[in-house]
Amino acid sequence: MEFLLPVYRQPDFTLVRGEGDRVWDDAGRSYLDFTAGIAVNALGYGAPELRRSVEEALEAGLIHTSNLYRTVPAAELARLLVERSFPGQVFFCNSGAEANEAAFKFARRWAGAAHPGRRTGIVAFRGSFHGRLFGSLAATDRPAYREPFEPLMPGVTFAEVGDPDGVAEILGRGEACAVIIEPVQGEGGIRPVGDDFLKALRALCDEHDALLIFDEVQCGLGRTGEAFAWQLAGVVPDMMALAKPLAGGFPMGAVVVSPGVAETVQPGDHATTFGGGPLVARVARTVVEKVTDPAFLARVREKGSRMGARLAALVSAHPGARRARGRGLMWGLELDGPAAPVVDAARRRGLLLVSAGAQVIRFVPPLTVSPEALEEAMDILDASLSHAGY
Ligand SMILES: *Cc1c(COP(=O)(O)O)cnc(C)c1O
Hints:
Number of helices: 14
Oligomer: single chain
Largest sheet: 7 strands, mixed
Bound molecules: pyridoxal-5'-phosphate
Number of strands: 17
Helix content: 25-40%
């Protein structure tokens, strides 16, 4: 422990095992896990189909080959992602931040081809989170994350979610090549962006010849009860960033790039040593097939509406609980005060939760969560809210 750089504040136990919806610590205590590795472990812990995919990949003997050579798993995964989303091509990388930074580079590449030497700016939104690297952090609306590390990537302008006129004004300056938004803001407090606003952004980007990038790193791949959150609004982006659940817990990110952008990208424009390796890509194919299956998504929606109903009841019962927001199995409970005491109280009662901003408790269980575990978690939450004085 004392050898880990202290960038994380970790509670006082060590996890050693997981199965289904639960993890166990080294003292044998079990916890119902509604963090799921921060919306990563969509199929829960110890999923047999993931184990089989890992074994299959290992049998071929190729964990990694680099992108100097083609492999079957990367080709198959790229094709599957395009089939399940929109026409285009796929770039693989290793995290959400990397996926967004790749999208920014492709946007500038495209803009350089369409408008030589000019448009380099990015429009992002209040409440956004796009990652912790210098480009993705520049597009992240969190002063505490940003300020100690400035200067960041220049050229990012923030607009308000729900204010199309503000976006129009910024795009009208002719300096931005892309608009990036999370269709459901995650770290910013689990805030679904209205369908009408996403439609307005699509129209504004078309009008001003800018690209629309959807960051579906957290809300994508089944989390909202749709394969991708934008499908609820019927608005197709020019690029889509994916990561968190993509490879079942192995680090992987991806950008799906529409043909008009893809055709401006040349060999050598961008690269990564590890991205899309045969082991992670094989596992990701299993995840993507499962979490985009219509029957699976129908169960996510059912369990999600039950969770929404239970959270709404808790808002009525607890004066300090302000409102519940979410879609599918991605929910936030906004409180009058800090979320941390509730998170601590829940952990002592055997439920792992994570906040999204200071006053919002976030619920992102495995998409395979059992209905019984869901009820149990809501019961523990009820008791923890009372314990923390809400
Ligand atoms: C977590 C997250 C990221 C960053 O992903 P990393 O893998 O931590 O780099 C980017 N965008 C969104 C919406 C996220 O939730």
